[in-house]
Write a structure and sequence with these properties.
- With 82 residues, this protein is mostly helical.
- It has five helices and no strands.
- The protein has one domain.
- The chain is globular.
């Protein structure tokens, strides 16, 4: 399944892939999806500029309130500290 998703992303663009995923994700799970993505991105306890850009774009697309996104990021940084 992962290979299929990567293939779609490469052929049609990752914005299309994200848009398609959002259509099938209930609104009440948007913050949860942001938290899970943040946990994966911060699993090494650090954040690169590219990862920060991705998280900034993701919370906006998911319509996660900025304060909620900041709290999620803070908690995940603490959780994933080495």
């Amino acid at each position: 399944m992962f290979d299929k998703l990567v293939g779609i992303g490469q052929r049609q663009g990752y914005d299309t892939l994200l848009s398609t995923a959002l259509q099938s994700l209930p609104h009440e799970l948007h913050d949860t999806a942001f938290a899970m993505a943040t946990d994966i991105i911060l699993s090494d306890g650090t954040i690169t500029d590219e990862e920060e850009t991705l998280l900034n774009n993701l919370y906006r697309v998911l319509e996660t309130p900025e304060q909620t996104a900041k709290m999620i990021i803070e908690v995940m940084l603490i959780k994933n500290r080495g």
